[in-house]
User: Fold these one by one.
Assistant:
Number 1:
Amino acid sequence: MPSMMTVLLRSFRRSRDAASAVEFAIVVPLFVMLVFGIVVYGSWLGMMHSVQQLAAEAARTSIGGLTEAERASLARAYITGNAGSYPLLTPTKLTVVAQTSSSDANVFTVTVTYDATGSLISTLPTFVPAPSPHISRSAAIPRGGY
C-alpha cells in the first residue's frame, strides 16, 4: 500500500487547478511591457512626425522672404502660429534655427528642435527603454530656379 506522501505527490502532479494562474503570471509582465512600449514609442514617433511637419512647412513658408532675416522671421512666425495645433507638442519647448545652408548658398534650412522632457515618454515606467527626449528635424528648400 502506498504511503500518504506518495499519494499526495501523485495527486499534486496530476492537479491542473493553478496552471492558468502560473501561465497568467508569466505572460502578463511581458504583455504589459509590450503595451507600454507601444504607447511610449507611438507617442515619440507622433512627436517626431509633428516636429518634421513643422520644419517642412516653415521652410516652405520662408521661401517668400527676400532677405535671410525675412526668411528666418517667416519661418519662426509660422512655427509660433501653428505649433499649438499639434496635440503632442508644447509650443514653448520648440527651438527654431532658420538660416542659409553652410554647404550651399542657394538652400535655406529650417531646423526645429523639441525638448520632450516631462512629456508622456518620460512619465511611463522605466522598465521600457525610452527614446531620447530631444527631437531635432530639419527641412531644406532651394531658393528658386535662377
Note: Residues 37 and 119 are 15 Å apart (CA to CA).
Number 2:
Amino acid sequence: MRTEMQKSEQMIIFGGTGDLAKRKLLPALFMSHCDGNVNPEFSIVGVGRENLDDASYRTMIDKTVRQFLPADFDQKKWTTFLTLLFYKVINATEASDFTRLSTEKKTARVFYLATSPHLFIPICQNLALAGLNKPDSRVVLEKPLGHDLASARTINREVAQFFAEHQIFRIDHYLGKETVQNLMALRFGNVIFEPLWRAPYIRNVQITVAEEVGVGSRGEFYDGVGALRDMVQNHLLQLLCLVAMEPPTSMSPDALRDEKLRVLRALQPYTDETLSQMVIRGQYTNGIETATGQVAPAYLQEKGVPADSQIETYVAMQVAINSWRWAGVPFFLRTGKRLPTRTSEIVVNFTPVPHSMFSGNHSNQFNRLVIRLQPEETVHLHLMAKQPGEGMTLRPVSLNLDFHEAFTTRHADAYERLLLDVIAGRLTLFMRHDELEAAWQWIDPIQIAWRNQKIPPRTYAAGSWGPAAASAMVAKANAEWSEAL
C-alpha cells in the first residue's frame, strides 16, 4: 500500500511558452498563490526551446498573461508571483538537456506536459533517465491522449514504465467545474433525486457543448482531430458517466472511477444501420455570427483547412446504456462549432405525469433539471405551479441556484481546482488508464465506419444549431433538443 504523497514544491511546465500555459495554467496558479493555497516558496519552471533566461521569461509572461487575469488583480502579488517563475531551455527529445532540471534540490515535483501527445513518451523517458521520476513526483497528461485505442494504449503502457498509475494525472478540465461536481452532490447528497434517477422516471438526458466560434487559427490542428475526438471522446463521455453512474461507495479515486468505467463498458455499440441513423456528423458552411452579425466563413475557407476536408465540426448522437437503471432511456449528446451560442449544459428531462387533471394542454410541459456549466454555472429545476387567479391553470416555473450568488467565496475556475488537486496528489477528478481506453474502445468503431463509408459530413450554416438531421434523429425518439422546449 502506498503512502500519501506530500504536497508538491515545484511545477515544471513543458510547453511553458505555449498558449495553454499563458491562458490557463499560469493564471490559475497565480490565483492560487493569491489565496495562499500553495506554499509561498512554490516555484514554477517553464520549459521550452526558445532561447530565454529567467528574466526574459518573466518579462514575456508579464506582457502576455495579464490579459487573462481578473481586471482587479493585485499588482503587488503579481510582482511577487513573477519572482517564482524560472525558465529552462530544453529539447524534449534530447536526454542530456534534462540534467538542467536535476540541479535543484526540490522534491515532490509536478511535470505538466502541455505539449503535443507525441512528446509524452520521450519526455517521461528522459525524466526517468535524469532520475527525476521520484516516488513523490507526478506527471500531468493533457488531452488529446492519443487519436485511437491503439495510440492511447501505447501512451499508457510507455508512460507506466516510468511512473506508477497513482502518479499519472490524465486531465479533463470539465471535471474541475463546480457544477460538474455539484451534479454528484445533487445526486448523492439529496434523497429526493435518487429514487427518480432511472427509467421509467427519466424521459431522456441531453448533454450539449456548443461553441459560437469557428476553428480560427487552429485549422491545421483541428483538421487532424475533428469534433468526435476533440470533444465527444473526453468531455461529453465524462459528463455522461457522471450522470449515469451508480453511487460510488466513497469519494476515493478508485471508487468513483470504477463506477465511471462501468458506464463506459455498458455503452451500446452501433451497427452499420444504427450508426447512420443515430450518429450525425456535420461541417459548417458560411453563415452569420450570432454575436456580431457578421458573415462567418465556411470551415473549408478557414486558414490551414484543406479545400476537400471531410472532418466534422459537429457531432450529435443518440446513446443507449445497457443497464437496468437506464434501459430504454436515450442519451442525446451533441457538440459543434459555429453554433448560435456558447453553452455547455446537461438537461435531465423527466417523464410527464401519466394523466393531467388540470385545465390546459400540458403534454409538452414536464419537469426538467438543467445543469449549466458555461457561460454561467447554474442549476435550474423546472416545475409546474398554479398560475395566480381563478381555476387551476398550471404554468412552468423554475427553482434556480446560481453558484456566484449562493456562495460568497471566490469561485475558482476548473484548471485552478485541478492544479491544486495535482499539487496535493488527489486523483479523484482525473481519468484512470482503463477508463481512457474504454472510451476509445467505444469511439473507434465510429471513426472506422466513417472512413470506410466515405460519406461526407452534412453541412449546416454557421450560426444555426447544426444539420436538420440532428433534430430529425431526436424527433424519432419523441423528443426535442433543449432550446426548442
Note: The chain has 14 helices and 17 strands.
Number 3:
Amino acid sequence: MTRRLLILFSAALASLILVAAGSSPAAAIQFRALLADTSSRDTDPAPSPDGKWLAFQSNRGGGSQIWIMPANGGKPRQLTKEPATVKGPDGKMIPTRVMTPTWAPDSKSLLFVSTRAGGYNIYSIPLEGGTPKALSAAAGAQRYPSYSPDGTKIVFPSSRNQPSSLYGFQLYLMDAKGEVNGPPARQFTRSSGSPGHPIWSPDGKWICYVAKDFDSTRTVDIGGGMQAKQSAIFSAFRVFKKPVAGGNEIRLTGNRTDPGQAEDTWPSWSRDGKWIAFGRNIKGKQNLWVIDVLTSQAFPVTELGNALKPEWSPDGKSLYFTRINGQDEDIWVATGLNLVSNARARK
C-alpha cells in the first residue's frame, strides 16, 4: 500500500510537500472504503462541521434518500422519508430524486434537494429527522445549496429564468430561513457559463463554483472535421471564484499549466482556507485534485480513477469522496492528508 501511495503522489511532489507523520511523505496517508456495499448506491458525502457525522445520499432501503452515520464509521440511519414516486409532467408516476446533503454551520440541521413537489427544490431537515421544511419553490431546478459560514445565507444554482435550458443556471443567494417564508432570492451571477456546485470560503468573502469556460468568438473543432463558434456545449467546466461583495469572477483552473481536455467539478474549500479540492476528468479518467489558493496552482491527489465529489473533513486532514464502479457508487476517505505548498513553506 505504501509503495502505491508513493506512486500516486510522485507527480505532485515537485511542487507540493506532503507533510505527514512517519518516515516517508506518504506513509500516513491511507485510502479506504468507508461504505462499500455493492447492493446499494452511496454518494454525495457530507461531513458535519463538528466532525461527528457523515451525511450521504443512498438508495439503500429502496428509493433515493438522505442517510447519516458516525463520521468514523458505524451503522447508517435513514434521515429523510421522501415519497418513492411523484407525478411527472406527463401525469405518470416517476421516482423521486433526493440528493446533495449539506450541513448548517452548527451541525444541527441539513439542506438537501428533492423532487417531492415535482421540480428540484431545497429543503431543510433537523439532524434528528422529522418533517422537512421547504426553502424554495421556484420554477426550473434549484440545486446544490450551501450555507454561508455564519449561517445567515444560502447560495444555490437555479434555472428559474431559463427552466427549459440545460445550461440556464445562475447562482442565487437567499436568507437562511428560505424564500418560501422570506424575501425572494437575489441573483448573484450573470454568467453565460451555467455556474453550479457553489461553496463559500471559510471567511465568507468568496463563493467558489464551477462554470463553463468559453469564448463565443473562438472557433473550435466539434468533431467529424467540423468547426463552430465555441458555446457552452463545446466547452468544459472550470473552477471560478467571485467576491460576495461584488466584482468580477476569477478563473482558478484552465490555465496554461493545466492538462488539456480536462473538465473540473464539485469544488470543496478546506476549513483553513488554503486549499480547494475538486474532481477532474481527463479523457474519461476521474481523479481528485487540489488548488493551492495562495498560488492558484492545481495538483493531483489521486490516480485511483473513478474518484469524484471530494469533501474536506473539518480538520483538513481527510477527504471524503465517491468512487464509481460501473453502476455502483461507494464512499471512500483519504486520511492523513496534511498539505503544505512550497510557496508557503518559504514564507
Note: The helical segments are 2-10, 342-345.
